[in-house]
Amino acid sequence: MSMVSLPGLKDMIESISTERNLPKQAVEEALREALLKGYERYRRTVQIDTQFTEDYFDNFDVELDVEEEGFRVLAKNLTIVEQASNQDHQISLKDVQEVAPEAELGDTVTLDVTPEQNEFGRMAAIQTKQVLAQKLRDKQRKMIQDEFAEHEGTVLQARVLRFERQSVIMAVSSVYGQPEVEAELPKREQLPKDNYRANATFRVYLKRVSQGSQRGPQLIVSRSDAGLVVYLFANEVPEIEDEVVRIVAVAREANPPSNYVGPRTKIAVDTLDRDVDPVGACIGARGSRIQVVVNELRGEKIDVIRWSPDPSIYIANALSPARVDEVRLVNPEERRAHVLVAEDQLSLAIGKEGQNVRLAARLTGWKIDIKDVAKYDAAAEDEKVAQEFQGQLTGEVSEEESLEPEATEVSEIQV
């Protein structure tokens, strides 16, 4: 069998494997794919008048011989026919029987179609080099995808490299001890009080591993995701790690809509152990545990509250630090509640620009209206809710009535 010589092939594969941190097998596979594209370019050049379909060369393959430092091109699955009309996909029975008398019509064979050393021209070599570079990039991206896909939703250590537009490009340590991988921290995922200077290190939440071959970092990380808060508490509170205390829900506003409002998080915790105070466990002695989390998040305010299966108690706790007088579940089906507080607690319950009540609503899943207990008229509010409910029923009935003529028309047509 003929072979195109590639002097230094073995050393080249080892060098690329080391430089790009790829297994030798992956480098060889990329090289085979690139050489096949080079052969395709060679064929298109020497047969310029021939129209090749997109899948014309699908039955061709390249065989690397690393020890002999060369490659061969093979045409596989050539069908044995009486008289071949396409030399790349068929072969005549007569030609095959000269070397294999037992061959029959309909069988398939593999044929060595390696070009001569001097025929594999300059353009084919350039094409091979370009495709190899692309294939190696694809292999690297695939390796990153395979390594980090299972680590989505975890926290990694990252180092600031540079800025691109409004994003911060960071170096993330590989899980398996490989060289660092670039990750993007978009503007919306940054914390307003973070100082992203060169080589500064941060804990980041791996939000997504991008699939495909698009350019740019494949890892999208976050400093504003609620998952980062959950990780930090789990890391600082042994009771959470031991599943004695569980985090039920988290509501975070790391990038408030206004510059006058700082980042804030509310976290609901619970336990089945009567001897354990879940809130106290998260705060720690003299606030030691929660302070570590606050420092990592650059002074972000964090409210740790006790979860309760009773919505009234849960909503009242969620509005901490405000003191709540009463919680009225005015429409449980639509999860609407009126929270009654004293006049001096109104601003505290609502929060600066509505942040406190907004986070409490996200945490509990209830629509919360803060009311002044001194001015609240329970009977009037109940009547108002009843009227709204009646209006919804009337709307449903009207909608059904409006559909009746259409149903009659359909019935008439069917008859």
Spell out the helices and strands N to C. Answer: EHHEEEHEHEEEEEHHEEHHEHEEHHEH
CATH class of the largest domain: Alpha Beta
CATH architecture of the largest domain: 2-Layer Sandwich
Radius of gyration: 34 Å
Oligomerization status of the protein chains: single chain
Which fold name corresponds to the CATH topology of the largest domain? N Utilization Substance Protein A, Chain:P, domain 4
Put simply, the count of helices is 12
* N-to-C CA distance: 78 Å
Strand content: 15-25%
Global morphology: elongated
- The low-pLDDT segments are 397-415
Mean pLDDT across all residues, rounded?
Answer: 85
Summarize the amount of helix as a percent range: 25-40%
Q: What is the makeup of the main sheet?
A: 5 strands, mixed
Structural class: alpha+beta
